[in-house]
Amino acid sequence: QLQASGEGLVQPGGSLRLSCAASGIIFSINVMGWYRQAPGKQRELVAAITSGGSTNYADSVNGRFTISRDNAKNTVYLQMNSLNPEDTAVYYCKSLTINSWGQGTQVTVSS
Length: 111
Hints:
By secondary structure, the protein is mostly beta strands. It has no helices and 11 strands. The protein has strands spanning 2-5, 8-10, 16-22, 32-37, 44-49, 55-57, 65-70, 75-80, 89-95, 100-101, 105-109.
């Protein structure tokens, strides 16, 4: 089970951190990812992190977002900086290893 948290409304230029706590899986060996889906758009991969800590980012967020993990806490994070209205979406965490989704968490960037 994956439980995401951290939803919020932020102003453009602001920051927000999402968390996703895992249970019932061997978290440390899972490749984890954050996806997002904006209204009327397809769900897209935002960032991913391997069990060894290697990361990959979508071009649209590279340099602004940081994915990280704490295996001791079975948690993956997404630190989002320099947010803009185009980042508004429902964000989902996912175990790419076992193809398991968490519930979505809403991020709204608006003045």
